[in-house]
Amino acid sequence: MLAFGYTRPRPMIYLDHAASTPPHESVLRAVDATARELFANPSSAHSEGAKAARALEGARAQVAALLGAEPRDCIFTGSGTEADALGVLGPARRARGRHVVLSAIEHPAVMGNAELLEKAGYRLTRVPPNAAGVIDPDAVAAAMQADTALVAVMLVNNELGTLQPIAAIAQKLGHTKPPHLHVDAVAAAGFLPMSVRTLGCDSIAISGHKLQGPRGVGALWMRPGAGNESLYAGGGQEKGLRSGTENLPAIVGLGLACELARKGLHERSAAVARLRDAFEESALSRVPGSRTTVPQGTPRGPHIASLAFDGLPAEPLLHALDARGVRAAAGSACASKKKGPSHVLKAIGIGDDTAVLRFSLSPETTTAELELAVALLGEAVAEIERVVNLSRPRKSRHV
Amino acid sequence: MSDRTIYLPRVILCRFGELFLKQGNRSRFLGRLESNVNKTLAGTGLKVSSPHGRLIIKVPEGLCSTPEETEALLLDAGDRLSRVFGLVSLSIATRTTPSIEAMCETALIEARKVLHRYDGKGEPSFKVDCRRGDKNFPMTSYEIAAKVGYHIIKALNLRVDVHNPDFSIGIELGKGTPPLVFADTRACPGGLPIGTAGRGLLLLSGGIDSPVAGWLAGKRGLSLDGIYFHSPPFVGEKTRDKILELARILGRSQAMDNVFVVPFTEIQKKLRESTKGDLSVILYRRMMMRIADRIADKTNAGLLITGENLSQVASQTVENMAIIDKAARHLVIRPLVTYDKMETVALARRLGTYETSTLPYDDCCSLFMPNNPAIAARIENVLACEVKLDVEAEADAVAERVDRVPVLV
After folding, report:
1. Taking CA A282 as the corner, what is the angle to CA A280 and CA A285, rounded to the nearest 5 degrees?
2. Which residues contact B141 (CB under 8 A, 6 or more apart)?
3. Which residues lie below 8 Å from residue B87, measured CB to CB, with a gap of 6+?
4. SS (H, E, C) B126-157
5. Three-state DSSP class for residue A75
6. CB-based burial of residue B11 (10 Å sphere; 0-12 exposed, 13-18 middle, 19+ buried)?
7. Is the CB of A334 less than 8 angstroms away from the CB of B366?
């Protein structure tokens, strides 16, 4: 607080990149230019249509390059969720089997669609993670049944940041008629180098706005020959899998965002991981009562730090941080309300009375921002702790 | 039966009930109702007139270029008017000429429209209701109804049922005005026009009850403002937005003009620290009353309104409510005090606040709630806690920092 009773304008520290990222300036320009100039329908036979179709295929090549894939195997969707839905529902419906295996920490985009299958008569097996939030490939193998049609495991968990051993899981599924392996890579794309060649899966979903591209666009890579079917009928765009006139401005934006992400990805990924580690170290030493939600040595995507505070409610802590200019995310709600922790936090044994905050970074995040964020986190924790201690006057959390 | 009769002018006929009881100051109530209706229809271009103690909404010449456009405009206006307190019901009617032949033809057109909805399924029964204000018309209302009814039976081969008809055709034959013929009547909330009973201040939480309490208060003619006690960071900005959305829904019934957002965190912490916990809910509510008193002074509100309900939660006892009232200078009313939760929920659904009220943003943080709230607090104990703070000065200070947000519908 300054004198004269007004508050110093607080700098905004955005640490919620796993929820959405600010689009690149050049992406915004490309979206704008495409909307203005390439308004023709890519399916039209005239020369303007051909221009639009060329832009569409250019973007497809850019997306494919980020995934180490062939452009013809990539299709555009309206969101990451839609790419997941198509990657889960389509292959399962095409297969003969009626059993689905998925990790217990999947995003609702996968979990919810698997539950739709369950309602339609499929059997579902949810494989729980270990305490560090990682799925054991042997546990996936053990969940397999004779008629398993689909296995879905995400690459990077969006709440914890944990990296799942997709390649090892793919190997366990065997070589003769293995089930379709779908990978939700929405939280990983643009932050972690990946290649369809080494992952060994059959489909991958990504989303535009998580890698500094626009919203309202996602993409699905499908292994050639993998069975799939569209969710609804229409004009047969995107190889008949996703009808509807292509959202060319957003698609061109996604293509450019993928290209920008691909350049120097290894270096940037390592740099973000170093920032994340420094942030965690700083928070652990300077904020009393803080711990990492999963052990620090756990394999993780580079940009997500998850901190836990036992005995504190998550939502007030989040608001107290927000009031100080730090935008983070909570995986659980006010302690004594019914809402409780998310299914991911429950799966790793986080209880009702632990606040879990997620801080997700970007390559543009600075050390100075993170240092300030740690100081403000300390203030916020102290503020909430005072009120919590009022409710429990006889039990002091810290001696 | 020429097609041209379809293009007869369409109007909305609004009826009001209780206003007729107001002998001495009926014109004041009617004037307020007319001005509220005008406000509701602002921007639509429709014109309001009040011949012979009725409200008629007319479409000015040239406003609409097709009958479909007129119909859409009137249906939308009907939606808006169906929320205006003081109106009992309304009908979209066709204006015809004061001859029995014209009334017969117009009534037949209205009956055909209703029949169209049945789409050949079933054979609906009907009756004709006629009110004849113009006593110079050569037929009685009974004769008109019989003649018009016979005309419809002849043309459509429908059954008459005067006790339990599937639909009824209404004819209003006013003095000096063209007759109105209509088939549909839509219910309005009734009550008295907003602004005829002074002003109140509604304590708005984000729950189901308080918006309903406000709506009921508005129904009896009170103009309203809301007051919301905001405790950041223990509740987030989305809770504040939710309160403003609830206020906007009430505003559609003209039952909310401004919301006063009170920064409550600091004083809430102090109150929480002043007690072992059991009395904290009563201390918060007494402080809310003191702050509301000060805002009510500024808005010239004569009373405070809360959504409290007897025994709904453990602390809502007669003893506690009495102690809370003692902190308020203004009259405190609790429209829902005797309601069952189901009754309140049904009303909340009807006025459209239920979905917003049940959004998952907390209206007050449970961190501030004691595990075992006092069931029957004693005033001595409450005062003993309050004496540790200068509660009046604290209320003054908080009231100075209140943020007024106008409700835009």
Report:
1. 105
2. B130, B131, B132, B173
3. B14, B15, B16, B33, B37, B55, B81, B188, B189, B190
4. EEEEEEECCCCCCCCHHHHHHHHHHHHHHHHC
5. strand
6. buried
7. yes
CA distance B181 to B106: 7
Q: Residues, chain B, total?
A: 409
What is the least distance, in Å, from the CA of B5 to any CA of chain A? 45
Which residues, other chains included, contact B362 with Cβ-Cβ below 8 Å and sequence gap of 6+? A315, A334, A337, B206, B235, B239
Q: Which H/E stretch holds residue B323?
A: helix B318-326
Token output for B1? 């039966």
Nearest chain A residue to B278 by CA distance is A391
Residues B277, B368: Cα–Cα separation, whole Å: 9
Summarised one tens digit per residue, pLDDT across range B191-210 is: 999 999 999 999 998 889 99
Please tell me which residue of chain B has the smallest CA distance to A381: B233
Do B273 and A323 make contact, defined as CB atoms within 8 angstroms?
A: no
List the structure tokens of B223: 């103009």
- Chain A residues in contact with B235 by the CB 8 A cut-off are 316, 319
Complex ipTM above 0.85?
Answer: no
pTM: 0.84
Q: What's the farthest any 2 CA atoms get from each other in chain B?
A: 85
Residue where the block lists tokens 């918006």: B211
B236–A336 CB contact, under 8 Å: no
A333–B235 CB contact, under 8 Å: no
Chain A neighbors of B237, CB-CB under 8 A: 319, 322
Could B233 and A391 be called an inter-chain contact, meaning their C-beta atoms sit closer than 8 Å?
Answer: no
Q: Is the dihedral of CA B183, B187, B188, B191 positive or negative?
A: positive
Rounded-to-integer distance, Cα B14 and Cα B84, Å:
10
Cross-chain CB nearest to A320 (options B233, B269, B273): B233
For residue B273, the chain A residues in CB contact (below 8 A) are 390
- What tens digit of pLDDT does each residue of B68-92 get? 899 999 999 999 999 999 999 999 9
What are the residues facing B220 on neighbouring strands? B192
